Amino acid sequence: MTRKERYAFVLDYFQQHVPVAETELVYDSPYQLLVAVILSAQCTDKRVNMTTPAIFEKYPTVQDLAQTDFDTLFPFIKSISYPNNKTKHLINMANMVVKDFNGKIPMTVDELVKLPGVGRKTANVITSVVDAQPNMAVDTHVFRVSARIGLTVNATTPLATEKQLISFIPKELIHIAHHWLILHGRYTCVARNPKCEECGLRPACKYYHTVQKKASKEK
């Protein structure tokens, strides 16, 4: 199977079996999504979703968040990984949005990465989820799944993975393909013991054909 054929198989499979795929973070506005994504770094979406309702009730707008201080916000975030840094990031992010962007969450990657606590991955998430822009956020799931299946070849960094994926995936599918790969990595192609026997991508998966089949023959 050529790489082009592999992409075609994978995308066709997801379009047929997972026509709706979206972030599992709960949000009602670009501001809320940005807060949630900043908090989600090296933390589970489940934990973030348990934490954000109280934050959004206390700080319903970015202007409200900009007016708080560390000691007031920290108790809302202390159960999240790296709470000290994330508390500072959220306050500084809110202040910059109010000061430099008239209180509106910017919607380009170049503008978003200027915000404290926002890297390329977060910026890609915001723009692809809110605005369906053809940006591919590469987290640990996307990085692992893409390499295992064979969608990426010798991609040793998230940026290299991103560039390879967007060069093969049709522009109109990039924003949803991000979710397909994340969810597949979260629930099927898990890190330690991938659930290959229940995976519909086996016919196209390099990992299955090289590692899993070999292991089965050796038993």
From TrEMBL:
<dbReference type="InterPro" id="IPR003651">
    <property type="entry name" value="Endonuclease3_FeS-loop_motif"/>
</dbReference>
<dbReference type="GO" id="GO:0051539">
    <property type="term" value="F:4 iron, 4 sulfur cluster binding"/>
</dbReference>
<dbReference type="InterPro" id="IPR000445">
    <property type="entry name" value="HhH_motif"/>
</dbReference>
<keyword id="KW-0408">Iron</keyword>
<keyword id="KW-0234">DNA repair</keyword>
<feature type="binding site">
    <location>
        <position position="199"/>
    </location>
    <ligand>
        <name>[4Fe-4S] cluster</name>
    </ligand>
</feature>
<keyword id="KW-0227">DNA damage</keyword>
<dbReference type="GO" id="GO:0046872">
    <property type="term" value="F:metal ion binding"/>
</dbReference>
<keyword id="KW-0456">Lyase</keyword>
<dbReference type="InterPro" id="IPR011257">
    <property type="entry name" value="DNA_glycosylase"/>
</dbReference>
<comment type="function">
    <text>DNA repair enzyme that has both DNA N-glycosylase activity and AP-lyase activity. The DNA N-glycosylase activity releases various damaged pyrimidines from DNA by cleaving the N-glycosidic bond, leaving an AP (apurinic/apyrimidinic) site. The AP-lyase activity cleaves the phosphodiester bond 3' to the AP site by a beta-elimination, leaving a 3'-terminal unsaturated sugar and a product with a terminal 5'-phosphate.</text>
</comment>
<feature type="domain" description="HhH-GPD">
    <location>
        <begin position="39"/>
        <end position="187"/>
    </location>
</feature>
<keyword id="KW-0238">DNA-binding</keyword>
<feature type="binding site">
    <location>
        <position position="189"/>
    </location>
    <ligand>
        <name>[4Fe-4S] cluster</name>
    </ligand>
</feature>
<protein>
    <recommendedName>
        <fullName>Endonuclease III</fullName>
        <ecNumber>4.2.99.18</ecNumber>
    </recommendedName>
</protein>
<keyword id="KW-0326">Glycosidase</keyword>
<keyword id="KW-0479">Metal-binding</keyword>
<dbReference type="Pfam" id="PF00730">
    <property type="entry name" value="HhH-GPD"/>
</dbReference>
<dbReference type="GO" id="GO:0003677">
    <property type="term" value="F:DNA binding"/>
</dbReference>
<keyword id="KW-0540">Nuclease</keyword>
<keyword id="KW-0378">Hydrolase</keyword>
<dbReference type="InterPro" id="IPR003265">
    <property type="entry name" value="HhH-GPD_domain"/>
</dbReference>
<dbReference type="InterPro" id="IPR004035">
    <property type="entry name" value="Endouclease-III_FeS-bd_BS"/>
</dbReference>
<keyword id="KW-0004">4Fe-4S</keyword>
<dbReference type="InterPro" id="IPR004036">
    <property type="entry name" value="Endonuclease-III-like_CS2"/>
</dbReference>
<dbReference type="Pfam" id="PF00633">
    <property type="entry name" value="HHH"/>
</dbReference>
<keyword id="KW-0255">Endonuclease</keyword>
<comment type="similarity">
    <text>Belongs to the Nth/MutY family.</text>
</comment>
<dbReference type="GO" id="GO:0019104">
    <property type="term" value="F:DNA N-glycosylase activity"/>
</dbReference>
<dbReference type="GO" id="GO:0140078">
    <property type="term" value="F:class I DNA-(apurinic or apyrimidinic site) endonuclease activity"/>
</dbReference>
<dbReference type="GO" id="GO:0006285">
    <property type="term" value="P:base-excision repair, AP site formation"/>
</dbReference>
<dbReference type="InterPro" id="IPR023170">
    <property type="entry name" value="HhH_base_excis_C"/>
</dbReference>
<keyword id="KW-0411">Iron-sulfur</keyword>
<feature type="binding site">
    <location>
        <position position="196"/>
    </location>
    <ligand>
        <name>[4Fe-4S] cluster</name>
    </ligand>
</feature>
<feature type="binding site">
    <location>
        <position position="205"/>
    </location>
    <ligand>
        <name>[4Fe-4S] cluster</name>
    </ligand>
</feature>
<dbReference type="InterPro" id="IPR005759">
    <property type="entry name" value="Nth"/>
</dbReference>
